From TrEMBL:
The lineage of its organism: Bacteria, Pseudomonadati, Pseudomonadota, Gammaproteobacteria, Oceanospirillales. Its EC number is 1.3.1.91. It comes from the Bacteria. Pfam families: Dus. Catalyzes the synthesis of 5,6-dihydrouridine (D), a modified base found in the D-loop of most tRNAs, via the reduction of the C5-C6 double bond in target uridines. Specifically modifies U20 and U20a in tRNAs. This is tRNA-dihydrouridine(20/20a) synthase. It catalyses: 5,6-dihydrouridine(20a) in tRNA + NADP(+) = uridine(20a) in tRNA + NADPH + H(+); 5,6-dihydrouridine(20) in tRNA + NAD(+) = uridine(20) in tRNA + NADH + H(+); 5,6-dihydrouridine(20) in tRNA + NADP(+) = uridine(20) in tRNA + NADPH + H(+); 5,6-dihydrouridine(20a) in tRNA + NAD(+) = uridine(20a) in tRNA + NADH + H(+). PANTHER family: FMN-LINKED OXIDOREDUCTASES SUPERFAMILY PROTEIN (PTHR42907:SF1). The gene is dusA. InterPro entries: Aldolase_TIM, DUS-like_FMN-bd, DUS_fam, DusA, tRNA_hU_synthase_CS. FMN binds at P15, M16, M17, Q68, K137, H169, N209, G210, G211, G231, R232. The record marks N95, K181, R184, R300 as: Interacts with tRNA. The active site is at C98 (proton donor).
Amino acid sequence: MKLSSSIDRKISIAPMMEWTDRHDRFFLRLISRQVLLYTEMVTTGAILHGQAEKYLQFSPQEHPVAVQLGGSDPAALAQCARICEDFGYDEINLNVGCPSDRVQSGKIGACLMAEPDLVGECVAAMQQQVKIPVTVKHRIGIDDMDSYAFLHTFVNTVASAGCKTFIVHARKAVLSGLSPKQNREIPPLIYSHVYQLKKDNPHLEIIINGGITSLDTAEEHLQHVDGVMIGREAYHNPFILAQVDQRFYQSDVPIQTRLDIVTKLLPYIEQELANGQRLQHISRHILGLFHAQPRGKLWRRYLSENSHQANAGINVIEDALKQVIG
C-alpha cells in the first residue's frame, strides 16, 4: 500500500495554529524520531514582508519537518516555497483545509476547494521552484459541494498539475455559520470517502486525517490508505507517540519514559531561556505529557501556575517533575 517516497508519511502530526510551533515540534521529536512534523500555517504575506526568519526558523533536530503555506497567488507561493526550501524544510504543504473566516478573507484554506484549477496552478508554480515535494491538505468537500464525485474531481484536477500526495481531512468544511472549532466537530467524519479516493487513485499517496485518537485506529486506517495524520490528540496526549517508532517503523530503540523525555528537553529549555525566550512559551506544550497518569494533574497545575512568572527558570520544570515522581 505504501508508495515509495523520500519522506515517510506513514504517521505525521497535523499543522495546528498556535500549537505546532518550533518548541512543540522539538518536544515531539524527542518522543518520536520518525513521525513527520508540520509547522503551523504560515501565510505568504508573513514570509514576503520581512518576517521569514521569525516564522520559518527551526532546529535541525526537527527533521523530517514540513512547512505549511497559506496563500492562493501562484507567484507568491512559488517565491515562498523557494525560501522555505532554502531554510531546509523537507516538504511544502499547501493549506486547502482551514475554514476560518479570517483566512477565507485572504483567499486561503478550504474556500480554495471551489477552485481546483487555481490550486493546481499554485502547486505547479511551487514545483517549478523547488526540488522537495509539494503536497496539498484539504477537506472532503465544502458546504453543499460535498459529494464523493466533487472530491474525486478536485483531487484529479490538482494531481494533473503534478501533485502526488494529498492529506485529506475526512470532514467537509462549512464556510459560514460554524467556527473553526465547530468545523472540527460538527460535520461528520466520512472515512469511506478517503478510502475510496485511494482505491480510485492507487498511483497517488493518500493520507487520512480527522478524529484519530489512538495508534490502534491509525493501524486500521493504514489498511486502506498510505498514511495517517494525527492532530489534537498528539498535542493533548503527546506520549501517544512513544510507541510509534517501534510499532510503525520497526525501530529497535527502546521506548522512552516520560522522565527520559523531560530530561532530554531540559538542555533545550536552558538554551532557549538564555536566548531570551519565556518559559511559558515552551512549557505550555508539555502540559499533556502526563495525561491520564497518577498525579498528572499536579504536573499541569504546577506548570500552569508558575511558568508565566517573569523569572521562571528551569527549576520550574524540575519542581513540576517532583510533583509527579516525588
